[in-house]
Amino acid sequence: MSRIDASLHLRNTATCVYDLSYNLGDRIPDSLTYTVTPAVQSHLAEVDERFYGIDGDTTPYGENRYGLTDSGFLALEFSGTVPGGSTRTDYVST
Q: Any idea what DSSP says for residue 71?
């Protein structure tokens, strides 16, 4: 059986992003509900980011995010945009 990787890209505010990836084993669970509890959050890497902008220019920038399996293979890819001159905190599973 092959392993199933699940990822969550939750953009619940303009200033915070969760990028979570975890091994589901070889099956999809009955519920895909996942809650980021304080205990879970304490194990996430926190990355404070600033996105380049000059003189109030908020032209959006493209961003790509990737997730790898434990063996190094590409498991997921996400493309999006972020406003220039903005800041954001990302929480990333490690």
A: T
Angle made by CA atoms 68, 94, 25, in degrees to the nearest 5: 60
Q: What is the pLDDT of residues 30-55, one digit of tens each?
A: 887 878 888 988 989 999 988 888 88
- Strand-pair category, 87-92 with 16-23: parallel
CB neighbours of residue 73 within 10 Å: 8
Q: What global pTM score does this model have?
A: 0.65
**Amino acid letter at 44?**
L
Buried-exposed string 11-22: b where 16+ CB fall within 10 A, e elsewhere? eeeeeebbbbbe
